[in-house]
């Protein structure tokens, strides 16, 4: 079952080497339906499925919306698994099922594990099995696999009625059968290259601070309102970051350790040179064992880290267990959790024990004052606020993470003070970021706003709660706490 091969499948997906992956012998049921399988480019559409005694099949159409040079606009794939113990009547029913789905108007690919070692696929002859050979001849299907896929047997096959399959070769197996890799002679869809990220640990902070300090912000922002000044500031800082911060180079299998990549490379070489040799089987077993150990290590580390988001992502695929299998969730006492109520109680118990924090009674709040003068924001006020920012590489709408504010807090005092004061001294609605829910305007007073208002303007400092500042729009005035 594919449920036992998830580490191997995750490794294959992480390589980004394949446009299409066909899995057989999954034994998935209706409860395993995944809506995210429908979509993307090209667009796959499930046409039909078939299940009989120890035989399963799925029929999928792939539509080509990205190319107009082909005489056809889709291809149809039949993914098949037939157990060696499946009765002949089941395969006869399967052929009756796919016969009306076969067509000569577009390519039809019949692929899977058929488990017919009696057939000589080089000469297309067999003394006992004739149904599949007759079906292939009647629908002009050519069989492309010319090497044994398990020991000396041709069990995994690829048929097609168009000459679009090329470069078929063995690959690292996910089970005791070799995997098959081949190319399709059709235009490739547009590439979706991953967006590189900034490597702030290699940033040239000395040059960034030097350029910011040497820039005349007063002259540059003198004729700008608060919004335009902030947009100018964001553009200037991002241009600096693009120039002085290197970008990551996406690499295949980057999240896996080096020893796994080495073992996988050795497996590929052995599969290419001696696909069914004893050395290839042993190396594949070593790779699978190391991969399973790595996934077990990662799961144990996630559980031990007490990270609720990572823990939930780890277990989310087990919350809705298939009807034919147990839940897979086991509590600390060894009890298997079946119902959703039992799972919820287990999650609640885990989170309450791992992430509980002492509760403090709220401090009494003084009566709000509705009349006051908004002072200007000094460099000292901004510096006190920036000192409380943690140097994180967080995602923000303006692409300026908090690590930039901590590394450049002294050089950013001038532009930030200009922006803050412009927003305070004009009637223009402007969105100013709170630090820990409070914006310190001077050492004596801090202002908080009970009602957060969402605007489309970006945040000048961080990305969590926002404060809408305008004359007379600050609701509560509290004595400021001592700044650290």
Automatic annotation (TrEMBL):
Pfam families: Exo_endo_phos_2. GO terms for molecular function: catalytic activity. Keywords: Signal. Residues 75-179 form the Endonuclease/exonuclease/phosphatase domain. The keyword Signal applies. Gene3D superfamilies: Endonuclease/exonuclease/phosphatase (3.60.10.10). Residues 1-24 form the signal peptide. This is Endonuclease/exonuclease/phosphatase domain-containing protein.
